[in-house]
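Ops channel
N.P.: pipeline sanity check, posting one input/output pair.
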């Protein structure tokens, strides 16, 4: 299938990389307001880094939800394969860094 219009213009790997770098931190900020709205950002970050608690894995998963939603739109609805590849690559890199912090 040939992309036309705005899809062709924005079906670039670097667009997906930017989304993959920006969306997980936004998901982390959103998870702070859902999981622990009364705590400070510093305390929430310490909670994320504390490997003795199970909530850090929940925070990591919650942080990846915006990337999963973007992947759904890019890959399945809009068929923007190059942007989806960039998104997946950046998300895997960010997730790998998070695992280094967690374990």
């Amino acid at each position: 299938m040939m992309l036309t219009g705005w899809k062709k213009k924005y079906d670039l790997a670097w667009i997906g990389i930017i989304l993959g770098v920006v969306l997980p931190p936004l998901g982390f900020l959103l998870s702070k307001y859902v999981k622990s709205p009364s705590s400070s950002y510093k305390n929430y970050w310490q909670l994320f880094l504390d490997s003795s608690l199970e909530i850090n894995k929940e925070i990591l998963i919650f942080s990846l939800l915006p990337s999963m939603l973007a992947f759904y739109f890019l890959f399945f609805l809009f068929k923007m394969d190059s942007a989806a590849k960039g998104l997946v690559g950046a998300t895997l890199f960010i997730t790998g860094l998070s695992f280094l912090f967690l374990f």
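N.P.: looks fine end to end. Helices lie at 6-10, 13-35, 41-49, 55-77, 81-102.
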